C-alpha cells in the first residue's frame, strides 16, 4: 500500500496518508474539516535494493545473458591455455629473481644440468 501526500487548499495543512490504491482520495481536511484536501502528484518512490545479495546484473534480459555466456566461453577457451603457461613461466621467473623470463629460465635450465 502506497503513502500519498495530501495538502489542504484552505489551511495549507500537509499530511502523508498510508492508503490502499483502490481507495478514493480523502477530501475532508483533518485539521480544518473543510472539503479542500487534495492528493498531490509526486514522482513516486524509486526501487532501492539494500544488502549484499543484489547486483545490477541480476535483472538483465535473457538475450544479454546468452551473449555474455557465449563471450565468456570464447574468452575462457583461448585464455585458459595462456594462463596455465603464464603461471608456470612466472614461477620460474620468480625463482630466478629480477632477470627476464627467457634468460632466467635458460639460466635455471643450465644450472640444473651441471
Q: What does this protein structure show overall?
A:
- The chain has 114 residues and is α+β, with helices and mostly antiparallel strands.
- The protein has a domain of 37 residues.
- Helices cover 42% and strands 12% of the residues.
- The chain has 2 helices and 3 strands.
- Strand 1 and strand 2 form a beta hairpin.
- About 25% of the residues have low confidence.
Distance between the termini: 82 Å
As an assembly, this protein is single chain
Beta strands, count: 3
The dominant shape is rod-shaped
Largest beta sheet, briefly?
3 strands, antiparallel
Helix-strand string: EEEHH
Mean pLDDT: 72
Radius of gyration: 34 Å
Helical fraction equals 40-55%
Quick structural overview:
The chain has helices at residues 62-96, 101-113; strands at residues 3-8, 14-18, 37-39. The protein is of the alpha+beta class and 114 residues long. The chain has a domain at 3-39.
Element layout with pairings:
Layout: E1 3-8, E2 14-18, E3 37-39, H1 62-96, H2 101-113
Antiparallel strand pairs: 1-2, 1-3
Helix pairs in contact: 1-2
Amino acid at each position: 500500500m502506497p503513502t500519498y501526500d495530501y495538502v489542504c487548499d484552505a489551511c495549507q495543512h500537509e499530511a502523508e496518508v498510508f492508503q490502499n490504491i483502490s481507495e478514493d482520495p480523502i477530501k475532508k481536511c483533518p485539521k480544518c474539516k473543510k472539503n479542500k484536501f487534495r492528493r498531490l502528484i509526486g514522482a513516486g518512490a524509486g526501487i532501492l535494493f539494500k544488502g549484499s545479495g543484489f547486483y545490477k546484473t541480476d535483472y538483465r534480459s535473457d538475450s544479454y545473458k546468452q551473449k555474455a555466456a557465449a563471450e565468456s566461453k570464447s574468452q575462457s577457451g583461448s585464455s585458459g591455455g595462456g594462463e596455465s603457461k603464464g603461471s608456470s613461466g612466472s614461477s620460474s621467473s620468480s625463482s630466478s629473481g629480477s632477470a627476464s623470463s627467457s634468460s632466467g629460465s635458460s639460466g635455471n635450465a643450465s644450472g640444473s644440468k651441471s
